[in-house]
Design goal:
The complex is a heterodimer of chains A (about 525) and B (about 325). With about 525 residues, chain A is α/β, with parallel strands linked by helices. In chain A, about 35% of the residues lie in helices and about 20% in strands. Chain A has a six-stranded mixed sheet with strand order 4-5-6-1-7-8, with helices on both faces. Chain A has a six-stranded mixed sheet with strand order 14-15-16-11-17-18, with helices on both faces. In chain A, strands 10-9-12-13 form a four-stranded antiparallel sheet, with helices on one face. In chain A, a hairpin with a 2-residue loop joins strand 7 and strand 8 (about 215-220). Chain B is globular. The model of chain B has no long low-confidence stretch (mean pLDDT about 85).
Chain lengths: ~525, ~325
């Protein structure tokens, strides 16, 4: 038995917004579901009560509960993009919520839906009404889910990590929308997140959770003054890093590790019923030089070609034209595919859970690259795997555990250990930290910087968000629509005038508390 | 869209060709033919047999015989039955109609029962009603189809309410169309019931399983959080999202019903394809067997095609693939 929530007291007044902050596993999502009485079947309320407008929810009949859900208290669940039924048009799903809470004529329903969709920022609500979820982008789906939650004009909105799966620019848009709605509709909001930056703009008070308990409550200013180590770690994940950060070492004299010359890649989509071809120019004449031992950050919105660049480097895609030189030797030239693994180039993906075989033990996972390279004997490989686990901060005693038994942060370490097994020179991290919460991101970065110093690794850090960039990278490359639009350093990023860069910087500034940036 | 169905139908046609070639090869590999038994009869001279063999074309090499059969199929005859001395098609069509008379109502009734009951069972999962449901379906699943048919016959015999096998009473055709139809309906009750019992459980369990899975999904929970009524949640949100694998099962259920149907027809002496196929295999009546198997294949392909059409209508993601 696990206690997801313990002895938690919290009050939300009408029109007030409360932020809930905590690391993963601190019981934030359980709180959201408990408030709606939507906890899964294996959960039980041991003690305590939830009162809504002075009445205990336990005393609500199923019909009353149904009336309350959606109409008075609405929920934006974690990953709102998955909250839409894939086989029903989004308009129907929006209208159904409205119809479930009152009798309206057809024209009234359509008018209310259109109005709501306009409010969440859609210029053409009619088109969105007709569209199926798969025809909308992640951000659009999210906005439809928010529209669903708000269409009955609830008094309280419970938003459980509503931003986690979005790129920064969209995150900022959604946040702004919630702020407007709060002001215009007098909406009370319970905003659950692990990202302290997003909270200061929208919440009146903040509750910090750990192990199902509230460890601190108060305004942002009050919490920032707190001396508690956990609160500090969550509010200022960068602070702990600042001590390990080292001054960039530039070694221009050394020959470049990796060189890209006019690398291009395009994707052609053909539709069965039309002759039209949709050409997506993912990479457009990319030139890039990586010095050994350096860290280069590639920034850009989703769809800017960052991932294609990584996939070309790792050998998953063949570039259409241009050259990739590794230590002066071409490893890929336009149109020609070179087969075989590239041990010197290793890649770490965003989602550690899906890049690990759930049936493998930690030892098997880490030793796999060694096995593929037929490195020494079985016993040697096991010893090496244990060493690698230790190096990334995992207990070697856990070597026989299955991948699924590790937590999210530990799994990302496991992936890192596996990448290190191949003794790479270049490590590509494709949004490798985005899935982790802030304190874990900081821990991972400290580990990465440590490993870089020890093994002289070169990092290509791909991200849509600017967290930690200034501490970690020496060079920043901004991509937009398959092109490198700006090359700069993290220090000069804020003064950039290029629109694509500005968008990223501004979105990131809107998301982070002013105090957080100052602390760095 | 038209291309999608044309491609599906094209696949079906190719499959029919493949099945026919396989059948010819299998028959070639099996020892003996329709005339083998005559050789044992001392009153028939070897010359007569050789002559008959030439007459039936059995002395020709396999490719020639296949070509002859294809030509005859193009004319709509589908080969010639040695035992009945008639084109296979004239023998098969009325039989096929009778088989469909059993299978189609059984298919319809099975799905009409399975979908609502399965969805409700999924909605009650974990409660006593669902446990009773699980126990009941497991028990039914374990029953062999022959036993079901035999029990049905026993019921007919003991109660005397239903006719014991067959498709029509004697002289019923003289009493007018209505009497004939009522009599036919009365004869259909038991075989159709046996078929429904034989195929229902599998469909039920699939419906329950796939709806249960969708009920755990984030979007159904989100819809519950928006305060949607329970009935709409189950039938309006969970069922359409769970329909995809079920529609694929629809095509397979046609095959399932056909195979159960062949058995039940034999046991309950229903003049469908089943008894004729059995007889034709016993007497090595080559073209009749091939015709009967090809007909079953056609039903199966038609079932799958209907499934594809339904899938296209139900799932917007498939519509987009075109």
């Amino acid at each position: 038995m696990v206690h997801a929530l313990r002895n938690l007291n919290c009050e939300i007044a009408g029109g007030e917004s409360v932020g809930v902050l905590g690391e993963s596993g601190s019981g934030k999502s359980s709180l959201a579901l408990a408030l709606m009485l939507l906890l899964p079947k294996n959960a039980r309320v041991v003690s305590g009560s939830i009162d809504y407008c002075g009445r205990s929810l336990a005393g609500f009949s199923p019909a009353e509960l149904r009336q309350m859900r959606g109409a008075q208290v609405a929920l934006i669940s974690q990953e709102p993009a998955l909250a839409l039924n894939p086989v029903l048009p989004s308009g129907q799903q929006l209208a159904d919520v409205l119809r479930a809470h009152g009798k309206l004529t057809r024209t009234e329903v359509i008018a209310r839906c259109n109005e709501m969709l306009r409010q969440v920022g859609f210029a053409e609500p009619e088109r969105i009404m007709r569209a199926y979820p798969h025809e909308l982008s992640g951000g659009q789906r999210q906005r439809v889910a928010i529209a669903q939650a708000l269409i009955c004009r609830p008094q309280l909105l419970i938003a459980d990590e509503p931003l986690s799966a979005l790129d920064v620019a969209t995150q900022a848009e959604i946040l702004e929308l919630l702020q407007c709605l709060k002001r215009d509709l007098g909406l009370a909001i319970l905003f659950i997140t692990h990202n302290a930056g997003a909270l200061s703009a929208i919440t009146d008070k903040i509750m910090v959770m750990r192990h199902g308990q509230a460890v601190a409550q108060g305004t942002m200013a009050k919490l920032q003054a707190s001396a508690d180590e956990y609160v500090e770690g969550i509010l200022f994940p960068e602070k702990s890093l600042a001590q390990t950060a080292h001054t960039p070492r530039s070694r221009p004299s050394v020959a470049p590790l990796l060189e890209l010359r006019a690398l291009s890649k395009r994707f052609v989509q053909k539709r069965l019923l039309s002759r039209k071809e949709f050409v997506v120019q993912s990479l457009d004449k990319i030139d890039l030089v990586l010095q050994p031992g350096s860290t280069v950050a590639v920034l850009g919105r989703s769809g800017s070609g960052k991932s294609t660049l990584a996939r070309c480097l790792a050998g998953f895609e063949t570039p259409d034209s241009g050259e990739i030189l590794l230590e002066g030797n071409p490893i890929a030239t336009g149109g020609k595919k070179k087969h075989g693994a590239r041990p010197p180039v290793q890649m770490i993906f965003q989602d550690a859970a899906t890049s690990l075989n759930p049936r493998f033990t930690a030892r098997q996972i880490v030793a796999e690259p060694l096995e593929i390279m037929r490195w020494k004997s079985e016993a040697d490989r096991t010893i090496r795997a244990m060493q690698l686990m230790e190096e990334v901060g995992l207990d070697p005693d856990w070597a026989s555990r299955l991948a699924v038994e590790f937590s999210g942060g530990q799994r990302q370490r496991l992936v890192l250990a596996r990448a290190l097994a191949a003794e790479p020179k270049l490590l590509i991290m494709d949004e490798a930290l985005s899935g982790l919460d802030m304190p874990l991101q900081a821990q991972m970065l400290r580990l990465l910087m440590d490993l870089q110093a020890r093994h002289g690794l070169t990092y290509l850090y791909i991200s849509h968000d600017l967290n930690f960039i200034s501490l970690f990278a020496q060079e920043v490359v901004v991509m937009d629509a398959g092109r490198i639009v700006e090359r700069t350093t993290p220090e000069k990023l804020g003064q950039s005038v290029h629109p694509a860069t500005r968008e990223l910087v501004e979105a990131s500034e809107r998301l982070h508390a002013p105090g957080v940036e100052a602390a760095v | 869209m038209i291309r999608y169905f044309a491609r599906r139908a094209g696949h079906g046609l190719l499959m029919l060709f493949g099945v026919s070639i396989l059948l010819f090869l299998l028959f070639q590999a099996a020892p003996g033919d329709f005339l083998s038994e005559m050789k044992m009869n001392s009153q028939i001279s070897p010359e007569t047999i050789t002559m008959l063999r030439a007459q039936y074309g059995l002395d020709q090499p396999l490719p020639v015989r296949y070509w002859q059969w294809l030509k005859s199929s193009a004319k709509g005859d589908f080969g010639y039955s040695f035992a009945y001395n008639a084109p296979a098609s004239t023998l098969l069509w009325p039989r096929a109609r009778n088989t469909l008379l059993l299978s189609l109502p059984a298919l319809l009734i099975s799905w009409l029962i399975a979908v609502p009951v399965g969805v409700l069972a999924a909605g009650w999962r974990g409660r006593w009603a669902d446990r009773i449901f699980a126990g009941g379906t497991s028990a039914l699943l374990a029953l062999p189809d022959v036993l079901i048919a035999l029990v049905a016959l026993l019921v007919a015999l003991k109660t005397g309410v239903f006719p014991v096998g067959g498709m029509a009473s004697i002289n019923v055709q003289d009493q007018g169309t209505w009497a004939w139809l009522r009599d036919l309906g009365w004869h259909m009750v038991l075989p159709v019931a046996a078929l429904v019992v034989g195929s229902l459980t599998i469909i039920l369990r699939h419906v329950r399983a796939s709806v249960s899975e969708v009920l755990e999904s984030s979007y159904v929970r989100a819809a519950e959080g928006h305060g949607l009524p329970r009935f709409q949640l189950l039938f309006g949100y969970a069922l359409p999202a769970a329909a995809n694998p079920l529609i694929s099962l629809f095509g397979l259920s046609v095959a399932l019903l056909l195979s159960v149907s062949l058995l039940i027809e034999v046991v309950m002496s229903w003049p469908g394809i089943g008894p004729m196929l059995l007889e034709a295999i016993m007497s090595r009546d080559l073209f009749l067997v091939i015709g009967a198997v090809m007909l079953s294949t056609v039903f199966l392909i038609a079932g799958n095609l209907v499934g594809d059409v339904l899938l296209y209508a139900f799932d917007p993601r498939i519509r987009r693939q075109g």
